[in-house]
């Protein structure tokens, strides 16, 4: 879809046109590589909270999430107890869903356990980068999951992570640039520097 207004020549996905906050996210952040554990953990957590809701809702609450969850540092989150769960359930700035809050704490503990073994969440996620990326010409052609996201979900569940289904993991992979699902005609296609416009990998 072609955006309207001053930047009318720029092509964006339709979801990015629904609110200025979404447009800014699309133009500056979505699909850009994130390779540190804390950054990946934040995005994994927010994607899990987004399940059943709009991404705009999450973006509007992101600063409140960061404040409530120690800036997504897994070390303090892994120490949360029932009092912290109750604190979070009483926080109107975030999504007050007990299952997702408890999953975030559990996932922080799983991440700490990985790191204690010398493993990296970011490296695991990036290890599922496919050989080629989709080449959608319209929004309806953007996949909701892939063989790689199914395998990543299975891997993370085996490591003790929760709320990491194949669709959520594909959304994470798209957000991190592990795959590029920008429309082929979009000015953001290939913004990660990892993918060519035709869906092939950039030679490193």
TrEMBL record:
GO terms, biological process: base-excision repair
Kinase in keyword set: no
Keyword match Manganese: no
UniProt superkingdom: Bacteria
Binding site for Zn(2+): 182
GO molecular function, one term: DNA-3-methyladenine glycosylase activity
Record keywords, A-Z: Metal-binding, Zinc
Stored InterPro entries: Adenine_glyco, DNA-3mA_glycosylase, DNA_glycosylase
SUPFAM superfamilies, per database record: DNA-glycosylase
Name of the protein: DNA-3-methyladenine glycosylase I
Source organism: Leucobacter denitrificans
Lineage: Bacteria, Bacillati, Actinomycetota, Actinomycetes, Micrococcales
């Amino acid at each position: 879809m072609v955006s309207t207004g001053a930047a009318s020549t720029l092509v964006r996905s339709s979801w990015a046109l629904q609110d200025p906050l979404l447009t800014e996210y699309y133009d500056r952040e979505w699909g850009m590589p994130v390779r540190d554990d804390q950054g990946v953990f934040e995005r994994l957590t927010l994607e899990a909270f987004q399940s059943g809701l709009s991404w705009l809702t999450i973006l509007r609450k992101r600063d409140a999430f960061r404040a409530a969850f120690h800036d997504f540092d897994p070390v303090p989150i892994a120490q949360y107890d029932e009092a912290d769960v109750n604190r979070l359930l009483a926080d109107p700035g975030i999504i007050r869903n007990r299952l997702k809050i408890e999953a975030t704490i559990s996932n922080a503990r799983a991440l700490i356990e990985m790191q204690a073994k010398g493993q990296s969440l970011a490296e695991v996620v990036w290890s599922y980068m496919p050989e080629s990326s989709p080449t959608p010409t319209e929004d309806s052609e953007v996949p909701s999951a892939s063989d790689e996201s199914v395998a990543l979900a299975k891997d993370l569940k085996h490591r003790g992570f929760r709320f990491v289904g194949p669709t959520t993991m594909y959304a994470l992979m798209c957000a991190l640039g592990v795959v590029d699902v920008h429309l082929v005609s979009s000015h953001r296609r290939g913004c990660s520097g990892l993918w060519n416009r035709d869906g092939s990998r950039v030679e490193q």
